[in-house]
Design goal:
Number of strands: 5
EC number: 6.1.1.2
Catalytic activity: tRNA(Trp) + L-tryptophan + ATP = L-tryptophyl-tRNA(Trp) + AMP + diphosphate + H(+)
Largest sheet: 3 strands, parallel
Bound molecules: tryptophanyl-5'AMP
CATH superfamily of the largest domain: HUPs
GO molecular function: ATP binding; tryptophan-tRNA ligase activity
Shape: globular
Enzyme class: ligase
Helix content: 40-55%
Main location: cytoplasm
Strand order of the largest sheet: 1-2-3
Length: about 325
């Protein structure tokens, strides 16, 4: 079966962007004809400072988020990255394959490092090589992600191709990004030109997967919009980023196309559309946050799931790393 790998960082809480851009697709792919492997990438999280106690909690909460969203640990392998050392081991090999020039072009590094790139960690610079290792240590063929990860997945293909070329093998597959659905780039509720992000200082800019019904309703009510009514076709959303974002969110939550949504709500004012969107968001998200809170009462159960998941992951990763070492010329 084609194999899916994807990861989410346990740095801060899950947002609606993570859910619609990634998690919801993870669940759908689990139910399709794929072998699915999902990872809490704690090694990636520490490329920027993480308080240890908060990292522990965020890892467990993220695991609860996966399960509450519909990931079934019997169907998917669910684990945290640090417990499968093959990720870091293959990551080192890829540090020696990837070129400085490739890494310097990564927009996520530029955004995260900000003006003072000299002070960024070396891990942040090498982040995409470890990400390539996450994927390729399983020979994964499909990687569901949001739009913002596209460049990293192109780099993953470049690393696989260069490794295969340099060693004269056909060993690592060229992975397909899966960037699909109405909400591959969910924008901030306060600014339609910015991505919805867990690191935005304004909590009103995002919906957190742990927000209660009243908070979700208040954030949607206060979301920035323009004064026009909704158009009846997708074309009418061009140049209206805030309007487009809310319609995309509705479409993704309702599993409808943008055109189908607009054929229902076209002509309505935002004062009418927002309460409908808010009801839909609460109906879809409240059960997830309730289940997350319930699971967080059972940290031992969560730890056991992660522990079993890493054992299963290692069974796949270890022989692929061993073969890689042989190709590279390590005696062992
Ligand atoms: P992270 O933790 O930033 O985000 C996890 C997933 O959520 C998606 N996402 C969004 N999608 C739509 N709209 C948004 N506003 C939004 N914000 C986040 C991301 O695209 C991502 O799919 N580098 C990855 C983690 C990673 C990984 C991997 C992913 C590490 N190794 C291997 C795939 C395969 C990241 O930072 O995700």
């Amino acid at each position: 079966a084609p194999r899916v790998f994807s990861g989410i960082q346990p740095s801060g809480g899950l947002t609606l962007g993570n859910y619609l851009g990634a998690l919801k697709r993870f669940v759908e792919m689990q139910e399709e004809a794929y072998e699915t492997i999902y990872c809490m990438v704690d090694l990636h999280a520490i490329t920027v400072w993480q308080d240890p106690e908060k990292l522990r909690r965020a890892t467990r909460e993220l695991c609860a988020g996966f399960i509450a969203s519909g990931i079934d640990p019997r169907k998917s392998i669910l684990f945290n990255q640090s417990q499968v050392p093959e990720h870091a081991q293959l990551g080192w090999i890829f540090n020696c394959v990837a070129r400085m020039g490739w890494m310097k072009r990564m927009t996520q590094f530029k955004d995260k490092a900000g003006k003072n790139a000299e002070n960024a960690s070396l891990g942040l610079f090498g982040y995409p090589a470890l990400m390539a290792a996450d994927i390729l240590v399983y020979h994964a063929t499909h990687v569901p992600v949001g739009e913002d990860q596209k460049q990293h997945l192109e780099l993953t293909r470049d690393i696989a191709a260069k490794f295969n070329h340099d060693y004269g093998v056909d060993f690592f597959p060229l992975t397909e990004p899966v960037i699909e659905g109405a909400a591959t780039r969910v924008m901030s509720l306060r600014d339609g030109s910015k991505k919805m992000s867990k690191s935005d200082p304004s909590d009103m800019s995002r919906i957190n997967m742990t927000d209660d019904a009243d908070t979700i309703a208040a954030k949607i009510r206060k979301a920035r919009t323009d004064p026009e009514a909704l158009p009846s076709e997708a074309k009418g959303l061009e140049e209206r980023p805030e309007a487009r974002n809310l319609v995309n969110i509705y479409a993704a939550l309702a599993d409808m196309s943008v055109d189908a949504v607009l054929s229902e709500v076209g002509g309505k004012q935002f004062s009418e559309f927002k309460p409908v969107l808010s009801d839909l968001a609460v109906a879809k998200l409240a059960p997830i946050s309730t289940e997350m809170a319930r699971l967080m009462e059972e940290p031992d159960e969560i730890d056991a799931i992660l522990h079993q998941g890493s054992a299963r992951a290692r069974e796949i990763a270890a022989p692929i790393l061993k073969k890689t070492y042989e190709i590279v010329g390590m005696v062992g």
